[in-house]
UniProtKB/TrEMBL annotation:
It is found in: Cell membrane. Belongs to the drug/metabolite transporter (DMT) superfamily. Small multidrug resistance (SMR) (TC 2.A.7.1) family. Keywords: Cell membrane, Membrane, Transmembrane, Transmembrane helix, Transport. One of its GO terms (biological process) is xenobiotic detoxification by transmembrane export across the plasma membrane. The lineage of its organism: Bacteria, Pseudomonadati, Pseudomonadota, Gammaproteobacteria, Pseudomonadales. It is a multi-pass membrane protein. This is Small multidrug resistance protein.
Length: 116
């Protein structure tokens, strides 16, 4: 299977989101940048994330890319907080995250904004 330029851009955006989620997850462990290893993970993670985001927005409109980045980042970080850090998610939080996912799906599946 040959990846098109658009498909590569979406893959880069996915990598940017994963790097951002890793960096944000390590941010709590860095304890305000007082712990070296988690602080290094944060700096490298955000650097990688912004690098891949910059590459992705060469093709994907910046508004669409950022909506997907932010929406999926919120949901993934919330799930990590719930699963790994024991943070509570109440019903309104879950509904809100479902609405975020629905918004990302509407943008990607129904909107012509990102079409080239």
């Amino acid at each position: 299977m040959v990846l098109t330029r658009s498909m590569k851009s979406w893959l880069l955006l996915g990598l940017a989101i994963v790097a951002e989620v890793i960096a944000t997850s390590a941010l709590k462990s860095s304890e305000g940048f007082t712990r070296l290893l988690p602080s290094i993970v944060v700096v490298i993670g955000y650097s990688v994330a912004f690098y891949f985001l910059a590459l992705a927005i060469k093709v994907i409109p910046v508004g669409i890319a950022y909506a997907v980045w932010a929406g999926l980042g919120i949901v993934l970080i919330s799930l990590i907080g719930w699963l790994l850090l024991g943070q509570k998610l109440d019903f309104p939080a879950v509904v809100g995250m479902l609405l975020i996912v629905a918004g990302v799906l509407v943008i990607n599946l129904l909107s012509n904004t990102g079409a080239h």
